[in-house]
Amino acid sequence: MFVLGIDPGVSRCGYGCVEGGPGAAPRVVAVGVLTTPPSDPLPGRLAALDHDLRALVAEFKPSVVAVERVFFQVNARTAMSVGQASGLALVAASQAGCEVVQYTPNEVKQAVAGYGSAPKEQVQRMVQTLLGLAELPSPPDAADALALALCHLAMAPLRARVGATKR
Known about the structure:
This protein is an alpha/beta fold and about 170 residues long. The chain has one domain (about 1-165): Ribonuclease H-like superfamily/Ribonuclease H (Nucleotidyltransferase, domain 5). It has 5 helices and 5 strands. The protein has helices spanning about 40-60, 75-95, 105-115, 120-130, 140-165; strands spanning about 1-5, 10-20, 25-35, 65-70, 100-105. The protein has a 5-stranded mixed sheet. The longest helix has 26 residues, at about 140-165. The mean pLDDT is about 90.
């Protein structure tokens, strides 16, 4: 399975492509951060992010795109920004014919670190360990995107079983 994890944000949008499957150790295919200048007008930034997200999906052709679900934000402005970027990622993946899944930050932390309230540093260290990386993945947006992809690899067998029982 080839999963593209997206940690949405308008200024900084992390992405991480991970390949894995039953009995195979997951491996990083690509990781990075898409950025837009905060000084630019929002419509132009969203258009640039949309273009970059579509290009990522077209280049890597993931079977699944895992996007962080906006679950709770103290700052309403941040929540709106993350929601806008998340919507772009969902549309880009859907229009490319990818399966699209969403996970909350707590679900990702639980799947990767075994604790839903794990601090960012612990999640980064577990991502490093699970993927056999020589260094801590950074910046945090990229590490979070890799964690999203790993979360889906861990959850996919359960999701498949639950889906099979609903048929």
